[in-house]
Amino acid sequence: MTTFPVSGECLCGSVRYTVSGPAHCVVHCHCSMCRRIYARLVGTGATIEQENMTIDKGEANLTTFEDSGVRRQFCQTCGCSLFYFAEGLQGMMFYYPSTLDGGVHPGHPKGGEHHVFVGSKAEWESFEDNLPRHKEGVGLAALIK
Fold first, then answer.
1. pLDDT in tens, 110-141
2. How many CB atoms lie within 10 A of CB 41?
3. What DSSP character marks residue 100?
4. Cβ contacts of residue 70 below 8 Å, gap of 6+?
5. Which residues partner with 83 through β-bridges?
6. 61 burial class (0-12, 13-18, 19+ CB within 10 angstroms)?
7. Where are the alpha helices (DSSP H) in 15-107?
8. Around Cβ 14, how many Cβ atoms within 10 Å?
9. In sequence order, what E strands does the chain have?
10. Nearest-CA neighbor of 96 among 111, 87, 106?
11. CA torsion 134→135→137→141, rounded to 10°?
12. Contact criterion met (CB below 8 Å) for 28 and 134
């Protein structure tokens, strides 16, 4: 199991962060918006309390894109997506665990990983795991154990 704190950074290293506690859940989103934003079939986010996130370096290098009640932050130098804040999730946020140093586990509990919006996945995408699949989005409260 992961020992906290853990750190991560964007591709170019301009922005570094530290996570001081485990994720509540990890969500693999297959919606068309995530495919475009992240230029891949799925966007994977880990949910934590905002108080468990510290920007150690490069906060001024973060750029924000807001749309549909969502605020996304990414490095303005390399374009790496780092953080996601949604309306209605007071005190909570998502970060992208693929940016953690060394590929460490984000600490979410067993059973705390889900696929969402599989009803709008790319037609050529296939699944090779047994994680729960939700046709649409699921309220965060339903995913946090």
1. 989 999 989 999 999 888 898 988 888 777 66
2. 14
3. B
4. 84, 85, 86, 87
5. 73, 95
6. middle
7. 32-38
8. 17
9. 6-9, 16-19, 25-29, 43-49, 53-57, 62-67, 70-75, 81-86, 92-95, 113-116
10. 106
11. -30
12. no
Tokens 């290098």, located at residue:
61
Which phi and psi (to 5°) does residue 61 adopt?
Answer: -90, 0
Q: Is 24 left (phi over 0), alpha (psi -120 to 50) or beta?
A: alpha
Domains of the chain by start residue, with CATH: 6-132 (2.170.150.70)
Tokens representing 26?
A: 């990890």
φ, ψ (nearest 5 deg) of residue 110: -60, 135
143 phi and psi angles, rounded to 5 deg: -95, -25
- Summarised one tens digit per residue, pLDDT across range 5-42 is 999 999 999 999 999 999 999 999 998 888 888 788 89
What is the rounded distance in angstroms from the CA atom of residue 144 to the CA atom of residue 44?
Answer: 15
- Cα–Cα distance measured from residue 107 to residue 6, given in angstroms and rounded to the nearest whole number: 10
Identify the CA nearest to 23 among candidates 42, 43, 40, 44. 44
- List Cα–Cα distances, 28 to 67, 97, 118, 127, 144, in angstroms: 19, 11, 9, 11, 14
